[in-house]
Amino acid sequence: MDPASAYPRVRLLAPRLPQHPAIFRRALQADVRLAPGSVVDLVDDTGHFLARGFWNGHARIGLRVLTRDARESIDRDWIDARIAAALALRTRLGLDQGQGAARLIHAEGDALPGLVVDRYADLLVIEYFAAGMWKLREGIEGALRTHYPEATLYHFAETHVQKQESFDCRPAPIPAPRWICEHDLEFQVQPGTRHKTGFFVDQRDHRARLGAWASGRMLDVCCNSGGFALNAARAGCGEVTGIDLDPDVLDLARTNATRNTLRAEFLAADLFAYLEQALAAGRRWDTLVLDPAKLTRDAAKLAQALRTYVAMNALAMRALTPGGLLLSCSCTGLVDEPAFLEALRRAAALVGRELQILHVGGAGADHPWRVAAPEGRYLKAVFARVM
Questions:
Q1: DSSP string covering 330-359, please?
Q2: Which of 2-11, 25-34, 69-78 is predicted with the least confidence, judged by mean pLDDT?
Q3: Which of 77, 183, 316, 356 is the most buried (most CB within 10 A)?
Q4: Could you write out the DSSP letters of every residue in 244-280?
Q5: Cα–Cα distance between 287 and 273 in angstroms, integer?
Q6: Which residues does residue 219 pair with via DSSP β-bridges, in sequence order?
Q7: Three-state secondary structure along 172-234?
Q8: pLDDT above 90 for 312
């Protein structure tokens, strides 16, 4: 039997199928009421099969494309094959080893939209972003257990995602923290907090580069659990300070410093107030990392987000000694690399400084992205000398 006959149909109102795996609800028409997360076939005006994916009539994204092959059924075999392919890529790249951390599944980048899985030693943290993936959770978690039989699994979904996608992901018991090793430093990871899956795996390569290039007095702004600060301290920076607004992650940063026998001071502070007071007192740093949380998910607020990037980077540049090293990051997916670089140019012009760009990077190879879905390359990390 043709697998296409097994699924309800949704009609595409646009003249052609977009390459992007997410299709807006306004471009779709369903003739019957379907539960969020239902697997459907997308067809054109003539009934010709176009794609198969997750339907959600309550969400802005009405269809998440899973396959464009009518012969593929969305079942346990399909899940097993997609997960096996994602894990094989990490093994090939040497990114899933020992007691470290790695992203095992990166949503659209691994053709599994609505699903993220990070590994921290023997703990797998699963984040659901789509009602359809949540419906398939038994198959997903079963497939992961096949590859990691000794692992503990923990799943969650952010509250705003559950509301947008109309599903109820009851929180699992928060697992015990794990210690991971990255670049010969140890970090404690605690899932179930407000910070992604428990650790910023995407900054792995940039922490190593910062450790190689940092010098002098160093300030880590929005330091989280101290990843950049501790790499700088190990590199021999004479004075290392990290600031953040979250007291829980500051405690974690202090625990990490103690574990690695490194000296760093971690303070609870707002970046704007702290930098303005430091400038008024004549304090400057030779190395500064600025890695704020995502500023917006709303396209209508993009202009305000860019203004905020300009303002915070202008302060950071003023706080650097001439020739000092700045690592400025953005994880706001709506802000692409050219827009972020333009925000840095505007910040430099505002304070009369000049930037010498040394390196522009994104997340590591365990965060692959599709050229048709460029927002998957959400992280921008710019290393620059501030002249």
A1: E--TTS-HHHHHHHHHHHHHHHT--EEEEE
A2: 2-11
A3: 316
A4: ES-HHHHHHHHHHHHHTT---EEEE--HHHHHHHHHH
A5: 19
A6: 241, 288
A7: CCCCCCEEEEECCEEEEECCCCCCCCCCCHHHHHHHHHHHHHCCCEEEEECCCCCHHHHHHHH
A8: yes
Supply 33's token pair: 């009421």
In the chain, count H helices and then E strands.
Answer: 10, 19
Q: Which residue has the tokens 């702004």?
A: 221
Instruction: Determine the residue type at 35.
Output: A
CB 283 within 8 A of CB 219: no
Give the separation between CA 272 and CA 278, rounded to whole angstroms.
10
Q: Number of C-alpha atoms within 13 angstroms, CB side, residue 321?
A: 11
Element (H, E) at 103: strand 101-106
Phi-psi region of 80 (alpha: psi -120 to 50; beta: other; left: phi over 0): alpha
How far apart are the C-alpha atoms of 265 and 387, rounded to whole Å? Answer: 27
Q: Determine the 3-state secondary structure of 324 from DSSP.
A: strand
| pLDDT single digits (tens) 50-96 | 999 999 999 999 999 999 999 999 999 999 999 999 999 999 999 87
Burial tier of 339 (Cβ tally within 10 Å: 0-12, 13-18, 19+):
middle
The residue with tokens 């296409």 is 4
Tally the residues of the chain.
387
**Exposed/middle/buried for 94, CB within 10 Å: 0-12, 13-18, 19+?**
exposed
